[in-house]
Amino acid sequence: MSELNEQNLIAHYASQHQHLLTSAEPDWLKFYRAKAFETFTENGIPTTAVEAWKYTQLRTWHKNKFHQHPKHAQLPELYELQLFSMLDEHCQEVIVLDGVLQTKISDNNAMQIMDFKHALKTEEPLLQSYLGQAVNHDEHPFVSLCDALAEQGIVVIVPENIVVDKPLHILYVSSKNSENCVNHLRNLIIVGKHSKVEIIEHFVDLHDVTYFTNHVTEVILEENASLSHYKLEQEGNKSFHIGGIHVKQNRGSDFCSNAVTISGHFSRHDIATTMVEESANCTLNGLYFTHNQQHVDYHTTIHHDAPHCHSSSVYKGILTDKSSSVFNGKVVVKHGAQKTASKQENHNLLLSESCEANSKPELEIYTDDVKCAHGATTGQLDEEALFFLQSRGLALSKARRMLIRAFANDVFNQMPSSIVRDYCQRYLEMAAYE
Amino acid sequence: MLNIENLHASVDGKSILKGLNLNIKPGEIHAIMGPNGAGKSTLANVLSGRDGYEVTQGSINFKGQSLLDMNIDIRAREGLFLAFQYPVEIPGVSNMSFLKAAMNAKRRHREQTEMDAMDFLSLIKTKAKQLQLNEEMLYRAVNEGFSGGEKKRNEVLQMLMLEPCLSILDETDSGLDIDALQIVAQGVNSLRANNRSFLVITHYQRLLNYIVPDYVHVLADGKIIKSGNKELALELEESGYVGVGS
Ligand SMILES: Nc1ncnc2c1ncn2[C@@H]1O[C@H](COP(=O)(O)OP(=O)(O)O)[C@@H](O)[C@H]1O
Ligand SMILES: [Mg+2]
Q1: Over the range A422-433, which residues count as b (16 or more CB within 10 Å of their CB) and which as e?
Q2: pLDDT confidence of A65, banded at 50, 70, 90?
């Protein structure tokens, strides 16, 4: 990218940022934003010379100057959303339309769900103490950008000793009004001691327009807290999506992340967790299906900062057409984190000649007495198996479908929620075999 | 049922079958014996339609149609079945679900209605029991973690379910102990009928004590060099293949 272009873009964001600094927000937040923006400008927009962006070109993203505030939007007709509804009687559902939470607040005894602005009014001390605990601005330029600019977002607070029985389904909908706009979304999820919750973050768009979602979901898991998190990307052919979940795990906490890309155009997902105290556990599952010219980049980072923590990660990709993917899984075992057990796998299935899967599992170990393993494979459908299935009377297309499904099911079967699993399977089948 | 005339086939440009003739009538059991590398599996693969096996000359007629003009799956639906010498493992595809799909593909092909789930279940359980296959294996991925003998019996299970009119068994007996051999043979015999035929490829005469063939052929260097009745198998057992046909 040219120097001028980058300066242009930064200036564009600087003016948006400036506007916030003159708002009525509390001083600590303005200070936080200013620091975030400073980091963003210092590091610049990453090029492929930066290791973490080696295979992901921001060139096309860059061409678009996304505007900050979408026009006020009418809630789409219910039937339009029905398609993406996760069987609502099983879930508590909230809708974020063009970046704005539609249900003002919802407090159902089990947990509080509110928009960021509201939380600033009612939960300011909490926000002040938690915001930024789990994110790293230096490593994640778009987190810096989001923290500098995001006025919207969702805050979820689960108090201590609560088992939330209904999963929370957050449906992020982009309508026509998002065209050429960016939605910066800054979410914060705090799960109290011994509490347990399931949260589905689901990104969809209704009209196939060009827009940019930049979201940060920061999560604090207190002692023995448990979160099953799902992120479903089901966006259109022109969407740009950069987002991440950044987690801090305290003693004995359990984080299960499930990321699924069903459709989209350009996306970068970061899943980063730091186990800061002992006996924490994390499981990262991921499945990406890519088609057309789609590009998907998954970066997972697991920091073992304390002893006796376990992590396991399985990511699988199914690539077709001219699409491309990146999986970069990094596990860092800090000095003193004995009895760490970690394994990670990435497998890619290439269904066309011109797709490309980049895979890089990384392991950095600074202590003894650990058990770590990783592996990666990339290949086509097994010819022997295809022949065998046909020799029993199945048509080639059916045999292929069966093998693709088997490949994907490996990940789906790891998902704790059968509701989400069924949903993803259904859509994946539609996308993969249309 | 099956009529092979002057079949020449090659793999990777290497000619393996060199003018093979074979005629199998409905209800007959034919055995093919022969040394390693003679081309027995090649014949089986050509019949099933596997990629990479190129027929350079000759014809194969199956139930009045040209077999070579049919796709792999159509051959199967028309009633041809190959029990593989080396059964493949398919992680993530359950035995049960794949067999059900195979059954229904065949039924649709014959314009029959799909099989009721309960009927299918009770049928497959009966057949598994007959082959002394643990019921739990039906729910496992195809051949994954199966022992050598279990894989072979699993092939026979598929055969019993699909009820082919022409079954080709490629060394289904190798690696089986005598008990398993009898179970497999009993399975095959239970399918015997005057409208079904079998082509049994084997190294050992032993199997033919249990599956009694109408004809025995010796395949060597890509041709059938000698044919006879079941006594031929006994002779071969004693004197080996050396000198046969010369
Ligand atoms: N897929 C293959 N690629 C290369 N050569 C093959 C292949 N299959 C068979 N052959 C060769 O063809 C010949 C016959 O093999 P095969 O039919 O397996 O013999 P048999 O089953 O009688 O032992 C052997 O020389 C073998 O090496
Ligand atoms: Mg052989």
Answers
A1: ebbbebbeebbe
A2: confident
Q: What is the CA radius of gyration of chain A?
A: 21
Segments forming the whole domain that contains residue B171: 2-239
| B71 part of a folded domain | yes
CATH number at residue B199: 3.40.50.300
Selected for mutation to probe chain B from A316, A382, A391 (highest B CB count within 10 Å) is A391
Model ipTM value: 0.95
B99 and A382 within 8 Å at the Cβ level: the answer is: no
CB pairs under 8 A between A and B: 73
Q: Residue B147 domain-assigned?
A: yes
B246 located within any domain: no
B37 lines ligand 1 (CB under 6 A): yes
Burial (Cβ within 10 Å: 0-12, 13-18, ≥19) of residue A322: middle
Cβ distance B90 to A391 less than 8 Å, yes or no, reads no
pTM above threshold 0.95: no
Mutation test of the interface with chain B: which of A382, A390, A400, A401, choosing the one with the most B Cβ atoms within 10 A? A390
CA angle A371, A138, A238 (to 5 degrees): 95
Residue A1 pLDDT > 50: no
